[in-house]
Sequence to fold (431 residues):
Amino acid sequence: MPTELIYGAISFLLTLMVLSYLIGDNALFRFAIHVFVGVSAGYVAAVAIYQVIWPYLLIPLVTASMLERALLVVPLVFSALILMKISPRLSWLGGPAVGYLVGAGAAVAIGGAALGTILPQVNAAAEPFDVIGLIQRGGNPWQSVFNGVVMLVGTISTLAYFHFGASRKTDGSVKRNGLIEALAWLGKLFVALTLGVLFAGVYAAALSAFVERIQSLLSLFGF
Amino acid sequence: MKKRPVATIIAISVGVIVLLGTFIPIPLFATVRLELVQWAMILAGVAVLVGIGNLFSVHFQKIRRREKGSVYSVTLLVAMLATLFVGVMVGPSHAWMQGAVEAIIIPVEASLMALLAVTLVYASIRLLRRRAGLMSVIFLGTAALILLASVSLPLIGEIPFLSDWIRPWLMFGPAAGGARGLLLGVALGALLTGLRALFAFDRPYGGK
Fold:
């Protein structure tokens, strides 16, 4: 039996099992999901061993120079410590290794947020107002400035919607500043509109997947 | 809860050195940062194995206690151990492992995505029935408008004005502004969470 046919048959059965959820939660759906989680976990573990631990830790420990080997003792010790997390009795030993991961992760997240999102987005927000550059490139400055204003209002009001700072009044009630309140209401409109556009994109992708799955089911019977 | 001074000192010092390497353009800092991030990558790889070990432990306990639905746990463990054994023996890029991806992982992922198409419609109808406010109408109205403007209808094709004017303007005007606000909000949140972890206000590694 050719391997393609075996793969096709397994794929067909699993697709049917998952789509059976449309008639309600059932044993076939749960079976397919547990197989999926098991295979995915095994695959991810194999990838972690083959593409991270083996080439970056174990092979250099044997083949690299003395200095590099000495440096690799640090991740080796931390790896041993993090493995202690599996045992509830020895789990406290993994604290320093998790601390290392948290520290490095936090610093990478800060750098990524500042250099990868905040600065580029602020630059992109200012770009439509570069009227001189736009005229030199032969663009329409009025349209660009109008779009820039709409986007800027959308950005500021969306940020205001998530601003929850408020002061306490003399009567004990807590209320946001009037300007922030008005901007937040406008921001709510922008958020609803943005999520609507995103929803349409996700729905189109889900619908494409649905059509592709139905086609794959039919193709096994030669349709 | 016990104090964890060693974990806190390691978290702060590693975080500060990596940050210095990111923002200060001195080759020494950049080299040290690269080495520290590579070690973190190795640790993350080992942490993945710990997570999978925990998944094994949870389902093994379920089977040992003969809990309800433990037959699914048997399925999961057999699938996991078989894939892991073959993966370790032949490597993840071998044809057998790619077969597992093509026959199991991709079809199930695509089928779950397909289920999403139905559940999203159901959720939209429920939203209109339960919370039929202005925001719900704007949200669903925009989604319907974008979908309608994206399709090519029989006989007339794309809807004029809607497809070539309203949809691009909505997507690259107000929606782009809102998305930028959301992105900046997420980035500011990530920045603040990172700083809280770095200054040890939040200690996910334990300690007080």
